[in-house]
Specification:
single chain, mainly alpha, Helix Hairpins, two-stranded antiparallel ribbon, 3 helices, rod-shaped, Bac_CellDiv_Activator
Length: about 200
């Protein structure tokens, strides 16, 4: 368990987490930036109001990232299906190519025994056509494999962003509770009736 001290809007907080210190500082920095940005745009806001608006903004960011992640994940699943389909087609073409190579060898043997050379040439053309088709399929499959790898990297980054947003929201919830407690104490202190004082008759 890592324990670090961070500053958010000039106030020190102790953060605890199993994550690395660098990650916890990054989370605190993100929240600090959000709160300061809101206070800069509206200096009349209290700290608790700024914290609530920051929480709203962070949750909004999280929902958008989650939606983006879901879209990318659906695209990724589609790409995996396409990749599997291309791999099956490549395997099928490889089998056809092997069969045609064997058939070609048989035809060449017949050619040596004065078999019709025109018939053999036609079969060789068919083999060449199949080879070209297989090369096209392999290139297409490689393209989708590359796109698939890129999608995996994007998914990894989005998962990290979602995790970051989750911790930001938790931290803001804690701050909101602290601010509410502070406000309640201030109201009690400033209210004479709550402090046992009597008003002027």
């Amino acid at each position: 368990m890592n324990v670090i001290t961070v500053k958010i809007n000039g106030i020190e907080y102790n953060l605890k987490g199993d994550e690395q210190e660098e990650y916890l500082h990054k989370v605190a920095g993100y929240v600090d930036k959000k709160v300061k940005n809101i206070l800069e745009n509206n200096g009349k806001l209290s700290t608790s109001s700024a914290a609530i608006l920051s929480a709203v903004n962070i949750v909004d960011d999280m929902f958008k990232k989650q939606k983006e992640y879901e879209k990318l994940y659906n695209d990724f699943e589609q790409m995996e299906k396409m990749q599997k389909s291309y791999e099956e087609q490549i395997e099928s073409l490889k089998k056809q190519l092997k069969h045609m190579e064997e058939y070609n060898a048989e035809l060449q043997l017949k050619l040596k025994n004065d078999v019709n050379s025109q018939y053999l040439e036609q079969k060789e053309q068919q083999v060449e056509k199949l080879i070209k088709e297989m090369e096209i399929m392999q290139n297409t499959a490689q393209k989708y494999l590359k796109e698939n790898t890129e999608l995996k990297e994007q998914n990894k980054e989005i998962k990290f962003q979602l995790q970051t947003s989750k911790y930001k929201v938790i931290d803001l919830q804690h701050k909101l509770i602290e601010n509410q407690i502070s406000l309640a104490k201030e109201k009690k202190f400033n209210n004479p009736l709550l402090n046992g004082e009597q008003g002027v008759k």
